[in-house]
Amino acid sequence: MSRVLIAALCLTLAAPVIVTVTPTSADAQVMAGRGASRAAARRNRPALSDREESRLYAAQDAVVAIDQQIYEIQTAAEAAGGLTPEQQTVIQQHEARKAEHQSVIDRLEAKRERRTS
User: Fold this and answer.
1) Which of the 8 DSSP states describes residue 48?
2) Of the four, 13, 14, 44, 100, which is 20 to 30 A from 61 by CA?
3) Does the pTM of the predicted model rise above 0.90?
């Protein structure tokens, strides 16, 4: 009788170990979803920070302003009969500034697209 009691006691004490050692379908689901929280956090990141968005909008505004200045110089030159060397120099400087701002725009828009896709 004592052996039966000892065997029952051993089974009772070993039961939690046996249950936790054998994998179940719930364990497999938990194991598969471990990286999901990090991936969701990565997807939910804002496309650009506030500072980057401000910089993007400022660069876009600068490009529009530079285009307007170039247009004004060209229309004034057409009315006067042609571009002077000074006007050509100013237009080249504006185009160089425009290219700098456009590269900032391209970089930030590419970053936005990477984060949203």
Assistant:
1) S
2) 44
3) no
